[in-house]
Prior knowledge:
Layout: H1 12-22, E1 24-27, H2 33-49, E2 55-58, E3 61-64, H3 75-79, H4 81-91, E4 95-105, E5 134-139, E6 149-152, E7 174-176, E8 183-187, E9 192-195, E10 203-212, H5 226-229, H6 266-279
Antiparallel strand pairs: 1-8, 2-3, 3-4, 4-10, 5-8, 5-10, 6-7, 6-9
Amino acid sequence: MTPIFDAALQSPPLFAREFHEQGFLIVPNALSAAQVSVFNRAVTDDLENHGGEWVRFDESFLETPDVISRTADFDFAIENPVTLAILRSLIGELITFEEFEILIRNPTGKAQDLKAWHRDATRDYNRRMEIEYVSVVYYLTDVSETDHCLSIVPGSHYRRVDLRPADVASGEEVDVLGSAGTAVIFHGRCIHAGKLKAGSRQRRTLHIYYARADQPRYSEWTAIPPRLYQKADPALPPLLYSKWNASVVFEGVGKKPRNLPPSMSIAEMIREVQRRANAR
């Protein structure tokens, strides 16, 4: 059964047990219809006004990882009390913000996403136990059985942690469906992928990553602006934005190449990383 968190029905120990066993939780109505509308308008505005800061990987997949440097329109998504309360229960008061990105997946005839099945942070199978962060994905569009969706292999963060992404068999995964406003909270060690569907509508998602303050920063692709790390809000975890100037960074896909000019924009760096990967 797909784990669904409902604050009115489940106590913290129960949803924590479900997360430990399955590696993910589905949170319906984590955003209101009005909030979804505001975020969609902000996505459209940024794409129109800052299209050069978006990275297009192919005709179906584009993203921008540094939008919060340009606008405060998405700050609420990071601090959303609905999801942040769950995250604080799972991670504790050392919780910190790591990365924010927007993904758009357009209709396509492709049968498989370019990333295929993978774990986040590092693609090195032997380092999988070093992945210790949690992701939140907000659906800004309805995702039905015929739409592109996030697909997760349950338990692949813990009881099935020895499963290799290349060995995932059809039927082992759970397709996360839901209306706009749904949030998915999942462990970064879980094997997952963006599953492409023929005839899908455009899918828009916000992706936010959290870890602990006593760990190296997992990603440098999102700069944390002063308006966030200088914030003094007693309702927020005290170390939420503490990694704004972290000098120790996890050796993985979130670390900027040190041989690229620091004057390059984030989008330019990612394009160069992608170019090098394709060349290899």
